[in-house]
Amino acid sequence: MAFENFPVAEEPQHPATQPPKRNFRSLLTGGLIVALLGTWGYIIYDKNQTKETIQQKDTVIATSTSQRDQLQKELEDATMQYDMIKTSSANMVHSKDSVINKRDRDIADKQKKIKDLLERAKTDKSLLAEADTLIGSLKNDIEGYKTSIEQLEGQKLVLTQEKETAIKQRDKVNQDYDSAKKVLEEKEAMIDIGSTLQATDFSITGIKNRNNGGEKETNTARRVDKLRIAFDLAENRIAQTGTKDLYVSITAPDGTPVSGGGTFKSRDGVDIIYTQKVTVNYIQGQRQAVNFDWQKNNPFQIGDYKIQIYHNGFKIGEGVIPLKKGGLFS
């Protein structure tokens, strides 16, 4: 600032008043300079403060972004670990148990909530802190899930081993049972075969009925009305006391089986025509006589009639009676 001197009327100089005028100018000039310097200082200070605030905000944003990215990476790592555990346990029973199912639901809910927090967080430290806490809890849940899976796998292994052991024991029992059953069946078969009766001492006689009710023995074919068949059942200590069915099969002289009763199967599986079935009350261990008559509606043929006795599917004896033609007065 410039100051100009203008001519003024000379006055008598008063030494006492002149110094204050110089001091006032100096003070005014100094004050203006100080004010100017203060203004520029404040501007520079304010600019520095603004720059520092921006830098702090940038630092906060950068820090928040870095923390968010770190949390995002931890979430991805935890999710990957969880997926690997689920994949490795895919061969287990899908139904699992209630504990596993609940952990699945809890983990899925936390994953969803953490993703939502990270999407909304940006620079919100409270949301990031909440997400950080949930990720820690999620990791614990995944470890617990892994432990539960391992326990189930261990239980499955034990059950598998127990099942294999039970199967082996069952197979051994079945094998022993089959062996015992086979032995028992063989013994029963032997007993069954051993209980088959035997017919001996056959006696076959032709009988003619008299008009007076009497009977007469004859071997002339045209005079025979019936055949009287007799034999003994030998002692058998295996056969139980009780009724026994004997099948009588008679073959005519021309080789034709004489029907009348039906058929039965032999031990060889062959169907055999039987003529008559005779039921006897057998007593164990005793010799027993059997006799019965067989009568036919048409005349007897000339030749040999063969009588075979069957019991228990086996032929147990047979006898033959020859019938002759006979003479005029026979």
Quickly describe the structure.
The protein is α+β, with helices and mostly antiparallel strands.
Structural summary, described in words:
The chain folds into two domains: 30-166, no CATH class; 199-323, Immunoglobulin-like (Sandwich). Helix 1 runs parallel beside helix 3 (125-194). The protein has helices at residues 18-88, 98-121, 125-194; strands at residues 199-209, 215-217, 226-233, 242-251, 257-258, 262-265, 271-274, 276-282, 288-295, 303-311, 314-323. Helix content is 50%, strand content 23%. Residues 1-6 have low confidence and may be disordered. The strands form three sheets. Strands 4, 5, 8, 10 and 11 form a five-stranded antiparallel beta sheet that branches. A four-stranded antiparallel beta sheet has the order 2-1-3-9, with no helix packed on it. A two-stranded antiparallel sheet has the order 6-7. It is of the alpha+beta class and 330 residues long. The longest helix is centred in the N-terminal third of the chain and has 71 residues, at 18-88.
